[in-house]
Design brief:
The protein has a domain of 241 residues. Helix content is 71%, strand content 2%. It has 14 helices and 4 strands.
């Protein structure tokens, strides 16, 4: 018995080593961590110094306009990252993420409206638009709008619950492809029409604006603008790391398998529903957080954020940067919105034509987006 046990030990050891799983790859490469730390330093140190400490007449001064613009684009980059998780890695094209972005923005906007207090035009505890419409009390859905803690919870809860309920019925019915894209677009359009109505208590066509304070502090000061800028940058970087970790996990590999061959995933014993529902809800929550950060920096939220064009633009950001790359959609958000900011000033009538041409060109000639093109060039250079 002893001889048998001794002789089997090397065999079992060799077998276990032969089938040993490879060690998990690091979250980011050395160069990746270097780029991440550089972005962190830019957001938390360099940008605040250039804006708050460098004189306005200096060539190195970062203007308040630039701070607001970059902060807004970083909010869009969070949305693009969310789109990449659901479209790039799971193969589900949503044309309704503008709804989740707007829901987070409206929750924050309700809190900011309550922060105005009696400083409005009508000197009332009610928001000005409610006084104008002869409302006497706040609607029920404004109950917790004066609490910042409740607002933070609702920013996550409201988009998450809407996405969870919608996604459960859609994915359980196995709606996919272009049909899913159409119903998400229809859902967002219906919500936009609802929010346009004055009697719903969301400001109607004008939405919410004229914000004055957040947490009792003036919202229009340079220091508050920079605080919101830094918070937005940290949120973007945090979501990027979370998405990176998620995609490299077993959960992320299942998502990619669902994208490539959902029927094979089902035959392998996996139920795609919880995976699709989880990533769908998570992407909606990310959009809600982005919307909540967007509103105090831009100073307005209205139903236009739920328009069909707004949701389509979100898909364009991911496509231009490069789907299934994580960093690509972030870059795409900066490229497209930077071009939009410039073109809407120099040639506003050509912006929509440019956007359509850009999407067609990327689809035909750059299916992997800008990041895919750069990666291909580097590989070709390395091969030579």
């Amino acid at each position: 018995m002893t001889m048998t046990s001794t002789s089997s030990t090397p065999t079992s050891a060799a077998t276990s080593s032969r089938f040993a799983l490879p060690a998990p790859a690091p979250l980011l490469s050395g160069a990746g961590w270097g780029a991440f730390l550089l972005a962190l330093i830019v957001v938390c140190a360099i940008a605040p110094v250039l804006n708050l400490m460098v004189p306005a007449d200096s060539a190195f001064h970062l203007s308040d306009y630039a701070v607001a613009l970059i902060g807004k684009i970083m909010c869009y980059a969070i949305v693009a990252l969310a789109m990449d998780l659901i479209w790039g890695y799971t193969g589900i094209l949503s044309l309704g993420h503008g709804l989740f972005f707007a829901l987070g923005g409206y929750v924050m906007g309700m809190y900011l409206m309550r922060q105005i207090g009696r400083d409005g035009n009508y000197k009332s505890d009610l928001p000005d638009f409610m006084v104008f419409l002869d409302w006497k009390t706040l609607p029920w859905h404004w109950t917790f709008s004066d609490s910042f803690v409740a607002t933070l919870i609702l920013i996550v809860l409201v988009p998450g619950l809407v996405a969870l309920v919608f996604g459960f019925f859609a994915f359980r019915s196995r709606i996919k492809g272009v049909y899913f894209s159409i119903i998400t677009q229809a859902m967002t359009f219906a919500a936009m029409l609802l929010f346009f109505r004055n009697e719903t208590g969301f400001g109607g066509n004008n939405g919410f604006t004229d914000f004055k304070r957040i947490l009792g502090l003036p919202i229009a000061t340079p220091s508050m603008r920079m605080t919101l800028f830094v918070l937005t940058g940290l949120t973007l970087l945090g979501f990027f790391l979370m998405a990176r970790w998620l995609i490299r996990s077993k959960f992320g590999r299942v998502l990619q398998a669902i994208r490539d061959a959902e029927s094979r995933v089902m035959f392998s014993g996996y139920n795609p529903l919880p995976y699709k529902l989880t990533i769908w809800t998570l992407s909606a929550v990310m959009c809600g957080v982005a919307g909540a950060l967007y509103v105090p920096q831009v100073g307005i939220i209205n139903p236009g954020e739920m328009s069909t064009a707004a949701s389509i633009e979100m898909a364009v950001w991911a496509a231009v940067g490069g789907r299934a790359t994580l960093i690509g959609p972030v870059i795409g958000a900066f490229i497209v919105n930077g071009a939009k900011s410039w073109l809407t000033v120099t040639a506003p009538e050509f912006w929509l034509y440019f956007l359509g041409a850009l999407f067609i060109a990327v689809t035909l000639y750059l299916p992997q987006g800008v990041v895919g093109l750069v990666t291909k060039k580097f590989r070709e250079g390395g091969a030579k």
